[in-house]
Amino acid sequence: MATTTDAISPSPRIKQHKQYTLVIPLDLHHDRVLLGYKLRGFGQGKFNGFGGKIEPNETVIAAAIRELHEESGLLCKESDMIRRGVLLLETVADEVSPILEIHVFTVDRWDGTEIVTDEMKPAWFSLSKSLTPTAEPPTSNVDSSSSTTATTSTALDLTADTDTGHPAIPYHRMWEESRIWLPLLLRSVSNPDASALPTPSVTVENAGGKYFIHHVQFVGGTDSDVTADGEYSVWHGMGNRRLDFMDELPGDWELRHSYVRNPMPLQKS
Ligand SMILES: Nc1nc2c([nH]c(=O)n2[C@H]2C[C@H](O)[C@@H](COP(=O)(O)OP(=O)(O)OP(=O)(O)O)O2)c(=O)[nH]1
What we know:
Blueprint lengths: L1 E4 L11 E11 L4 E7 L8 E2 L11 H13 L9 E10 L7 E9 L12 E7 L51 H13 L20 E8 L2 E3 L7 E3 L4 E9 L5 H10 L8
Parallel strand pairs: 2-6, 5-8
Antiparallel strand pairs: 1-11, 2-3, 3-4, 3-7, 5-6, 8-11, 9-10
C-alpha cells in the first residue's frame, strides 16, 4: 500500500459514516463515459456518476445496482459491477456531520438504454479526452445556465452519438474532489497495463494498487462552480486530502473506524 497526499490530520473523534454508492458506466467499445447531470436535490447542477444512499439491510452492490437503474435506466448484474474504491468525504465545519463513505464502481456492460429521470439527465463524454483534470470543458452541448431548467430544456445534447462526437468531461462542473481521482481511474481503465499515471497535482507512488481511497476534508466555502452567484457549502473547499492505492480494501470495520482515525504515515505531495 502506498500513500499520496497533502497532509491530513486524524479526525479528533470517530464520526458516523453515511454510506453511498457511485457508479460510472463505461462504453469502452465507443470510447465513452456516461455521467448524469443532477436535476434536483443535493449536488443539483453538477455532473456525477449515478448513485445514492445505501438503504438499511441493503448490500453495497445491491444499492449500486438499484441506484444506477433508478437514475439512468441501465440494469446491471452483480457480476458486472467492478469495485474501484471509496471516497471518504469529511467536513470540518462541525464535529457531528457524518463522513460520506461513497463506494465507487464502474460497469462496462448492462441491459437497457440510458433515460432521463426526474433526478438525472445522462450525457456521454469522451473517455480518451478526459484523462487529465485540465481537459477543456465542453462548450457545445452544455448550457451553463441550465442548472435549474435542464429538465425541459435542450441544455444537454444527447444525440452526439459518434465515436468522436463526445466532449471531454466537464470536471469544473463536478464535485471538486472528482477532479483528483476520476482522471486517474479513467487512465487506468484506458490503459490497464500501465499504472495510473500521476497528475501534476498528485504524486502517486504505488499507482498499481487495484483500489483507491480518497479521503478529503472540506473546509467549506462559496461554491461558484455551478451557480453564477455561488452559495456557501460545507462540502466545498478541498482542504487536507490523501489518496491511497491498495490491492485490498480494508474490511468494513476498519474502513469505518481505523482508517479515518489512524491515518497511515503521511507524505507531502
Ligand atoms: N464524487 C463525489 N460524489 C459525491 C459527493 N457528494 C455526494 O453526495 N456524492 C455522491 C454520492 C451519491 O452518489 C450522490 C448523492 O446521492 P443522493 O443524495 O442523490 O442520494 P439519493 O439518490 O439516495 O437521494 P434521494 O433520492 O433520497 O434524494 O452524490 C462528492 O463530494 N464527490
